[in-house]
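Researcher: Last one for today. Full complex below.
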Amino acid sequence: MKIPPCLRWLLALCLLACLPLAVHAQAQAQAQDDTGQSLLASLDAASYARMDGAIEAIVASGDERSRGWLEALLGGKLQRHKETGRFVVVLENRGRNWPVVDALTGEALGEMSRRELDRIGINNALRGQLQSVLAVLDLRVDDVGARREAARDLLGRVDEAMVVPLQGLLEDEADAEVSRLLAQGLAIHRLEQGDAAAIESLAGSLNPEARAALSSAARSDDPALAEAASSALADIEQKLRLNSGLETLYFGLSLGSVLVLAAIGLAITFGVMGVINMAHGELMMLGAYTTWAMQQLLPGQSGLALVLSIPAGFLVAALAGIAIERGVIQFLKGRPLETLLATFGVSLILQQLVRTGISPLNRTVVSPEWMSGSLMINEGLSLTLNRLYVLGFALLVFAGLMLVMRRTRLGLEVRAVTQNRAMARSMGIRATRVDIMTFALGSGVAGLAGVALSQLTNVGPNLGQNYIIDSFMVVVFGGVGNLWGTLVAGLSLGVINQVLEPWAGAVLAKILVLVFIILFIQKRPRGLFPQKGRAAEG
Amino acid sequence: MHCSSSWLTRPFRERATQCFLGILLAALAVVTLFNLTLPAEHPLHVSTYTVTLLGKYLSYALLAVAVDLVWGYLGILSLGHGAFFALGGYAMGMYLMRQIGDRGTYGDPLLPDFMVFLDWDALPWYWLGFDMAWFAFLMVLLAPGLLALVFGFLAFRSRVTGVYLSIITQALTFALMLAFFRNEMGFGGNNGLTDFKELLGFDLRSDATRLGLFLATGMALAVGYVLCRAIVSSKLGRVCVATRDAEARTRFLGYRVERFQLFVFVVSAMLAGVAGALYVPQVGIINPSEFSPIFSIEIVLWVALGGRATLYGAVIGAILVNYAKTVFTGVMPDAWLFALGGMFVLVTVLLPKGIAGLLAYRLRRRRPPPSSSPEPTAPREASA
Amino acid sequence: MSFLHSLADRDRVFDFLVPAASPVDVRHGPILYLDGVTVSFDGFRAINDLNLTIDDGELRCIIGPNGAGKTTMMDIITGKTRPDSGSVWFGSRHDLLAKSEPEIASLGIGRKFQKPTVFEALTVFENLELAMSADKRILPTLTARLTGEIRDRIEEVLATVGLVECRQRLAGILSHGQKQWLEIGMLLMQRPRLLLVDEPVAGMTEQEMERTAELLTSLAGKGKQSVVVVEHDMGFVRSIARTVTVLHQGSVLAEGSMDQVSHDPKVVEVYLGADPDEEAA
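Model: Here's the assembly. Have a good evening.
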């Protein structure tokens, strides 16, 4: 029972291998239609047992449309109009009336009632064979990506009949990835037949089919096979754990980079001026809305808009920051708690301005194409690009700030004022000017954070509120007036959060992190990297 | 002024306290009288709705007094007092939930509706005992008191002060809010506790109970005020002010500053808890939004507007801001946040001593104080 | 039986109600003893292997250029700063490094700060009341009453520091010199065994300086108080000093009478001789 179909498949696949050679000119359209019609007719007429022959014939015909027919057949969408005997492909088989196209010409035929149509049915055995045929067909295309996809689909579905043609394909294959996948597919098949040697080529594979094959082999009666399979499985499990660890680390670093972006501007203003800026989150919100506005101005060019909104977001937030400093904070010198209250008032006003001025609802900011998608590290691990970009952006902003602080006159003055305001003043540093510049810088960085955030979360009036407490925690945890502290604190809090999350759930993880920081502050009131000395203890 | 009388009776000899108590008691009496005796169509009639609204204001006023005690006199800006308020409220809410008995939607004699809804088959252990009023009322004091004790012990021992303390109190209430939002916590999650029926056997929907709650809140405010007054006019109060202005110096005088801070912080948290417990039966619901950091900061605004370190200023501020909120949210809800934000800015920049500061200034201009009595202590910002 | 007897004895209070007396044992040597104390801030050694001995009843002046570690030394004695190594003893019984600031203060060490620190929102009278030696636990402080005895003692100190007229004035509106006096008054109210006085005469007139000198010399004496004065004003130091210690870069450079140290070549080099204007600054 098993051999004849296999032989037939062999024949079909051999013919298939010659497919590229058989070029049919478009001019022969009429003749094609005739052959097409007869091919489909024989398919329709055949019983389940004979149908594979009809399928072979279609494959062997080398007709360009054969793939579409076979797919439609597989999906139950290849049907015959009862009255005209015309073969059609149903596009959407839901509801009472279905849109259909002519199977031969591809011409749209409008909608037909399901009653008018007769489906060409298949059974499960045929379904499996069809899938294999389609997969092998796909392995012939020129596009490497499509070939990889097809090879991946084949894993675990290779049967005896496909072995020889697949080996032939494997020899001719130029792409390493496709070769690897094909080899794996064949190895899985060999392993299913009890070939212990196949285990070697499956070792370290993260593909679930390979793992399934290995684990069923591990339960086999042959002790040598079982042992080899289970040791290979253990290796794979190890690799998977590493993968999920790396993934957690990546998500943690990504969350951490957002925290660093949100906190670092705050760290500057808090460290230098001792000022708690509760409106910092709203400055981030302004940055995010700047991105949105930029995209409204440049419709269809989301990439350009995003790049332009980096300086724009910085500028908008910095100007808003200067307005806050001049309008409110300068009157509250030396009264940090009242500054906190006043800036909280500012944050309420800014939020409400956005709510009434723009909308209380979230706005969508489009991610440009180069930021969507993901970077595949291996079969079990891929990194989403937008998070990778934000991580890189955060590190860039950090490096930039470090440069400003270490290498510029402003940075020198800022550090002087941070350490001893009175002394810096008597050295001729205009502390007021330094205050304004620092506040503008810190606010501008908040704007940058907002631009970055617009790529990760919803842009809405509450955007800032969601981050303000977290970013305070980062500053306090890292130690005031220490940018490295902020970086380390932000990234490690992000990672801690992500490590806890699968174990405790998102909300509880957040609570635990907050409690951890509250306790940590008791132990080290000045954070991870405290400033020391008499002045700092005053 | 600080003579040899006992610390508890001392406040009754102060002019300011006498005035405050007089006005408060008179207001309570007038509202009660107008509510009970005047017919509903009379222009001066105070409806039960208004009585409950006023009761809510009074519970806020008590909360504001509690915040003023720690902020005004101890220099600790707590941005987490809403948490103590809410804990007191939840303790009361749990009692009221147990009082519902089998009159809930699902009619379960033991489990509150939300637990039936969550398919729980037994009361969690921390709900035990809340069917007894005395236990629940004790918890109204103990739950916030214990939280303040543990948190304050840790914070003050390691000398976390100034803006650091403000930030971590805010983190505390934020963490609690997240926790109470969780259904698994067993406090009703998002919806909180509601649908209360009766308190100590009195129907919560009846007019008499509502008037009674209003009067009880007024009396609690009076007692809380006198207690705070007694503390701040004792030597301990002066140690607090000393701590606020020069913490290190106070320590070098031999005072264990962290214990004083802890004591006052716990007293304040308990007062906030009482305020919460009185608030809940009047508004008929307690949910995690009372834990939100914004509410806690709002409380601070009431105190700042009324005037810090005066206690009566806190009462004025709480009532004024909340009255304004009621009016605004009724007439133009969008403008309320502008008004609130504007108040934060204007009060801190232009009116650092609040309304009480203005009043004191007016009074002093009208008649100069006798030279023998000390000037009222000017509220000063504690250095961070 | 004797327990019941002690209960019946109404003349005496119960033992556990008597505040823990902390007599300073000076029979076996000095009242203050610093041994090999070292402290550094971020690698900078503010105090470097400092050894210092103050005898009971002594009046000691400590001088040294800015950054010599004078204030840091006081911070260590009063418990504000913890040294990296070394030991500090008060009498032969109390290891100061194991105690907190309030404990050290209640042992009988009083400190006047470089910058006068008084409680500005309280009246002069209240400042002195808070400073007074008393049971400084919470409940006793809450229920404390102002007895005639306490009043008398405060009045006495008010007279000593010349602030009788300002009794009910807020400390915040006093002049700089008055604040210095108030702080000295607060020290007196504490009745300490050891006074640490940081730059007491800054901002005082000549007359006030003389009165301060008089007061400080009268305070010091065997069995009464020991006084350590840190001062920049050489004239003032000369007028009160019996023994002078010169600090330099965190350790003792020279010790002896004013004449001895002012002729010590090392001292002249690092401090006195280098720039005569600077010492007066």
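The longest helix of chain A spans residues 223-273. The first strand of chain A starts at residue 78 and ends at 81.
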